[in-house]
Design a protein that fits this description.
heterodimer; A: alpha/beta; B: Alpha-Beta Plaits; 4-stranded mixed sheet; 7 helices; 27% strand; globular; binds iron/sulfur cluster
Chain lengths: 714, 211
């Protein structure tokens, strides 16, 4: 278990076969590169698995995944398709005739067929040559794998050890072990301490290592988790996803306010500024060519009124400013309060947290015990879905029509008032095309439960006895009307069991692979990244895995702006045990168990700074942001970084005094106890007139971990 | 000896220190704020091979076979029940605190409002109805196990038999004969503490550095 901070968990003095290996935040790319280097150096990676150029080839070879490691990349700088994967046309290869029925035609990439040594379509070769470098059709090319070998060899194991803080001997040990179990190995990595401005290196490295050992979709390897029958889509009984007359809004005709999935040079703003004669215009906030949606970036766009003004903001059960490192600061809050910046802000939540505090309207919501949900737990191995249902009468206001005030009720009524399609009468089609109404949350969720009840093999009807024992014969009338009389006893059966799960056998094929095998390609060469240019500097990031130092928005290194000697510390955030991300500080029980969090520091770092366990300390960024809290001096924290559990350090949420119409209600300072990381904003964005968080230049997600800090006694 | 002898077994190998048991107990038994019938102590612990691990040690009344708290009680308020558990008859408790001084495990506390002494009851009100104690039924890793130690076929007896001398009570040398057993207690206590000891998330013993 590599983690900057030793959490409570399975690494106990008595648990066997699991070790904690401290790693510095924002250095995962270095660790993965080191392991890949060892696998290549020792030739312990699975060369067969890496050489399958297509799903069909992998299947025929007994595997579950393929890679683009053998695809040729055009390396000729003067070629119009420089940095792209070579296509059939670039190589002068014939392609099969187009299928006139198909809506999209396949792309044909080029590999050197390992059997013949000749260029071939990736669809025809059983295996490609991993190492080819040379010319095809007069064009200079090389394989993605050969580029990977170079990029992971940019540094030595000793250098990777220095960067990550993991001893070289330990890296070697892990590299050897990872390469010694065939495809029965895997890597898990996600969230929290992996989220940094170079956070993209984490999924990139993780997927590479999984592919290098041929583990994908293999029993005992990287076996797919989190599958479930269709419940909230086109299910066995109802279609909960198709909306007749739904407005056509997509990335093609609209722009995400979070500036994702759009290259700066493709924006209307860029084009019009160039047309107006501006040379090489730069945006106020960065655009992210390949990023998905981001609430953190959206909130920064809103306060900057860029790329366009947000007229209405609606958030549900989330506290974006608290959850976005660096966003909970006066400059942001002032803008959120300013109606000329944000004219209408509606929050639906069960508590009044930092976000709701600045809203114009607060719609009360219900808790998890008072509402429905069909979550598929991504970490579980089997196949199935849990059903969370209204086990308790909601505490919110009951309306005249027997519905309770909550997010769904609010959405339904607003949508109906706006005459949006897909709500009210004739909204939800069943499998026969008959339309059903959508007037309350039962109309939706109980249909999803019906889909689950009839999935694969329909469940038995619940018996009258069992329904009675569980009190399911006393459910309110508006539940039953959501499904048919025939479906109702099966819906109750599923509710009585809290969901449906199938055993692992349902997914494990007799051939040692996932039964539901689907094409699973691992990118060794990331073409999308290869073609992405930075909006400020025009620089590019490596299309194959390597280690990236922390960067600002123009890809300049943080350490080019600020002194690493003066600001030597990194930080990381981790999930709190005794709070949620933004809630539970109002719970007297949780506060009783943990009054506050700590600034967790390595014992050697603390000794050097003369800091003792329990001292108040400050971590300060080069831009003057101050995180102050009580030091927890421990061996279970990596040297060179401090850690903070998030969910503490509230400024609202009942912590503050509130004055309404001259009447002051006193806040409870215990709710504010503890600290949160005050991350610096991006100085490069500031130069362009924007207020922007430090962020991952690929995914646009916030730089939660890493940063630059000095630490001193408070 | 009574026919039934209730006891608990906690496998420290799988206790992840989540404190779900602490919360479940707080909700079930409603001890006053700052008081706990059960809690979990956690600290960084360096094992012999130099690796740092996180130790978790859930604590509660051990429902001792030979409880000092019972023998010092002047009114008989503290007593051993039919099922072997140690209980307090609040009607007889005069708040003299002798038991609090006598218990070497520090699991008893005074309820300021009533002047009575209180502690973990092994959820007597639940076990008499055939339910498990709240902490056991909520434990996310089934680290906590509960049952009749006198019944060789109970899950807990079987697991204890299997664990052999790996299962120990806290401070057995004091002679209280605790009936809360831990698997992996020796290894946990042998590892060198290298952080403060936390009760839940609050420090109960600050870290003084490597001694
Ligand atoms: S742990 Fe203390 S209170 Fe509980 S039975 Fe033993 S001596 Fe008595
Ligand atoms: S609930 Fe179980 S795993 Fe969690 S701290 Fe308590 S005993 Fe340990």
């Amino acid at each position: 278990m590599l983690d900057p901070t030793l959490a409570n968990g399975v690494v106990t003095p008595t648990a066997e076969g699991i070790n904690w290996v401290p790693i510095k935040p924002a250095t995962n790319g270095a660790f993965y590169s080191a392991i890949a280097q060892i696998l290549i150096r020792d030739n312990t990676f699975d060369a067969d698995a890496m050489a399958f150029p297509s799903h069909e080839a992998a299947l025929a070879g007994g595997y579950g995944g393929h890679t683009n490691a053998t695809y040729l990349v055009i390396t000729d700088e003067s070629h119009p398709n420089y940095r792209k994967l070579m296509r059939a046309a670039d190589a002068g290869l014939e392609v099969p005739p187009a299928d006139p029925e198909a809506t999209t035609q396949p792309t044909y990439y080029v590999v050197i067929d390992a059997a013949t040594g000749e260029p071939a379509l990736h669809t025809t070769a059983a295996k490609g040559d991993l190492f080819f470098e040379g010319e095809v059709n007069g064009v200079k090319v090389r394989t993605g794998f050969s580029m990977l070998r170079d990029s992971v060899n940019e540094r030595t194991i000793d250098e990777y050890a220095e960067i990550t803080g993991i001893p070289a001997s330990e890296i070697e040990r892990m590299g050897k072990e990872f390469g010694s179990h065939g495809h029965k190995v895997s890597v898990q990595a996600a969230a929290a301490s992996t989220a940094s401005v170079v956070g993209f290196d984490t999924p990139a490295g993780r997927e590479l290592l999984k592919a290098m050992m041929g583990t994908n979709q293999m029993t005992g390897g990287s076996f797919p988790a989190g599958q479930a029958p269709v419940t909230e889509g086109k299910g066995a009984c109802y279609d909960l996803t198709t909306i007749a007359g739904k407005p056509d809004v997509s990335n093609k005709n609209a722009v995400m306010i979070s500036r994702g999935s759009k290259a700066w040079e493709k924006t209307d703003e860029y084009k019009s500024r160039v047309a107006a004669g501006e040379k090489d215009p730069k945006p106020m906030l960065p655009w992210y060519t390949n990023a998905p949606q981001s609430d953190a970036q959206a909130i920064m766009s809103i306060v900057n009124k860029y790329p366009y003004q947000c007229k209405i903001l609606m958030t549900w059960m989330c506290n974006v400013i608290q959850a976005t490192p660096g966003a909970m600061r006066d400059e942001v809050i002032e803008k959120l309060k300013d109606t000329s910046v944000l004219p209408l802000h509606i929050v639906c939540d069960i508590v009044v947290g930092e976000m709701a505090q600045y809203a114009d309207y607060i719609v009360p919501d219900v808790t998890q015990y008072e509402s429905f949900g069909l979550p598929t737990v991504s970490m579980i191995g089997g196949f199935g879905t849990t059903v969370r249902w209204e086990a308790k009468t909601p505490e919110t206001t009951k309306l005249a029509d027997d519905r309770y005030v909550c997010w769904e009720t609010f959405l339904i009524d607003v949508a109906k008032a706006c005459e949006l399609p897909g709500w009210g009468e004739n909204a939800i089609p069943d499998v026969n095309g008959t339309m059903h109404p959508f007037n309350d949350s039962y109309d939706y969720y109980l249909k999803a439960v019906a889909n689950l009840a009839y999935a694969v093999e329909p469940v038995e009807d619940i018996t009258a006895d069992e329904a009675h024992i569980q009190g399911l014969d006393e459910l309110p009338k508006n539940w039953k009307k959501a499904v048919t009389d025939e479906e109702w006893p099966k819906v109750l059966k599923v509710l009585s069991r809290g969901g449906r799960y199938w055993g692992m056998d349902y997914k494990r094929g007799a051939d040692g692979r996932f039964k539901g095998l689907k094409a699973k390609e691992a990118y060794v060469y990331n073409e999308k990244r290869a073609l992405m240019t930075n909006p400020y500097s025009g620089k590019r990031l490596s299309p194959t895995l390597n280690y990236n130092e922390q960067m600002f928005a123009d890809l300049s290194l943080m350490t080019d702006h600020y002194s690493a000697d003066e600001y030597p510390f990194l930080c990381s955030e981790h999930k709190p045990k005794f709070r949620s991300v933004t809630m539970l500080a109002n719970s007297p029980i949780m506060r009783d168990i943990a009054a506050h969090n700590y600034i967790e520091m390595n014992e050697e770092d603390a000794a050097e700074l003369g800091i003792k366990d329990g001292d108040m300390v400050r971590a300060i960024t080069p831009r003057g942001d101050v995180t102050e809290g009580e030091a927890m001096v421990r061996a279970g924290q990596v040297k060179g970084a401090f850690a903070v559990a998030f969910g503490y350090g509230h400024i609202n949420y009942g912590a503050q005094d509130v004055e309404i119409d001259g009447k002051v209600t006193k806040g409870d300072p215990a709710i504010a106890a503890g600290t949160r990381i005050h991350m610096m904003v991006d100085p490069v964005v500031a130069e362009h007139g924007g207020l922007g968080i430090i962020a991952d230049n690929d995914a646009s997600s916030p730089g939660r971990c890493g940063g630059m800090f000095k630490i001193e006694k408070a | 000896m009574s026919e039934k002898r209730l006891g608990m077994l906690i496998d420290l190998g799988v206790c992840i220190g989540c404190n779900a048991c602490t919360v479940a107990c707080k909700q079930e038994n409603e001890p006053p704020l700052t008081k706990f019938n059960t809690w979990v102590e956690s600290w960084d612990a360096e094992t012999e091979d130099g690796r740092v691990t996180r130790a978790n040690l859930p604590k509660l009344c051990n429902h001792c076979e030979n409880p000092a708290c019972v023998s010092v009680c002047p009114t008989g308020a503290s007593y051993q029940a039919e099922d072997g558990t140690v209980q307090i008859d609040q009607d007889k408790c005069i708040g003299c605190k002798y038991c609090m001084a006598a218990c070497p495990y520090g699991v008893r506390y005074m309820v300021e409002e009533s002047g009575d002494v209180s502690k973990c009851t092994f959820c007597h009100h639940r076990t008499t109805e055939g339910l498990l104690p709240a902490c056991v039924s909520t434990c996310v890793t089934t680290s906590r196990m509960f049952g009749d130690l006198n019944d060789p076929d109970s899950d807990i007896s079987k697991k204890l038999a299997e664990a052999g001398d790996k299962a120990k009570g806290l401070m057995e040398d004091l002679g209280m004969e605790p009936r809360v057993y831990y698997i992996g207690l020796d290894e946990t206590l042998a590892a060198k503490p290298v952080s403060a000891v936390h009760k839940g998330g609050n420090v109960i013993a600050p870290y003084e550095g490597r001694q």
